[in-house]
Amino acid sequence: GGVVVHKDPVIWTDIFVLSPWGFYIDVWNSTGFDGTNLNSDFGDEIDWFVGWTGKSGNVGFNLGVAYFDVHKLFSSPKDDFLQLYGEVAYTLTKEYHAVTPFFRLEYTMSIPGTTDVANGSVRLLTGAAHSWAFDSKVNLEHKLWLIYDDGGAFLSKVGIVQYQVGLLWKLSNRVNLELPTVKISTPITRVRDDRKFEGILGGGIAIRF
Fold first, then answer.
1. What are the φ/ψ torsions at residue 79 (nearest 5 degrees)?
2. Which residue has the higher pLDDT, 64 or 71?
3. What is the largest CA-CA distance in the chain?
4. Spatial distance between the Cα atoms of 98 and 163, rounded to a whole number of angstroms
5. Which tens digit of pLDDT belongs to each residue from 21-53?
6. CA-CA distance, 38 to 44, in Å (whole number)?
7. Is residue 117 scored above 50 in pLDDT?
8. CA–CA distance from 118 to each of 68, 84, 107, 192, 197 (Å)?
9. For residue 74, what is the DSSP state?
10. C-alpha dihedral sign at 167, 169, 170, 172
11. What is the pTM of this model?
12. Which helix (H) or strand (E) holds 23?
């Protein structure tokens, strides 16, 4: 999903459509939950993803392109971003556990033609996800990221650690409840911009059609 530069509560929604051949379209939305309208501040964002995902044995692949439409929505391409990304992951399973180490590369840039500044940035992400099935209805899901961000033209180079943990409740074959979820993020190297320790508490519901 996307990244929202906003300190107040938000509602996130995500519509993901996957074809039998692995091609997908994903529309991710954030709406500020602060009494304002749907296009009032940086809590409001729409991210569009088009890509392909597939597997060969235990190895998974994900390649795609994303368009990040940030405030103000639909009206200011010079404030938006384009991202190319690729990820490879390997899943190991044993009894009630699944461990998935991964490596991801992201290249993010301004929309071509909207700025004269060469401001593309590169992020390298690696880490692992772990799923522990307590029983047929409840999973513990957690994930650790180690991130290097070269900062592009405007931000500083920084190393970041992120960790997310939560419970996944399987209410039916099509409905999962994610509650609660906790995500923390903190720089681990010197930083010269506004990035700092952050924590997010949330929950959600996933419905498959």
1. -95, -5
2. 64
3. 55
4. 17
5. 999 999 999 887 765 666 666 568 899 999 999
6. 6
7. yes
8. 18, 16, 13, 20, 28
9. T
10. negative
11. 0.89
12. strand 23-32
The pLDDT tens digits of the residues spanning 138-185 come to 999 999 999 999 988 678 899 999 999 999 999 999 999 999 999 999
In 3-state terms the chain splits into helix, strand, coil percentages (rounded to 5) of: 0, 65, 35
Does residue 2 carry a pLDDT above 60?
Answer: no
* Three-state DSSP class for residue 151: coil
Of 164, 125, 119, 128, residue with least CA distance to 148? 125
Tokens 């992201």 belong to which residue? 106
Task: Name residues whose C-beta falls within 8 Å of residue 56's C-beta, 6 or more positions apart in sequence.
Answer: none
Q: For the chain, what's the residue count?
A: 209
**What token pair was written down for 143?**
């994930």
Enumerate the β-bridge partners of residue 109.
Answer: 82
Choose the weakest-confidence range: 104-113, 116-125, 155-164, 195-204: 116-125
Residue 25: DSSP 8-state: E
Which residue do the tokens 């602060």 mark? 34
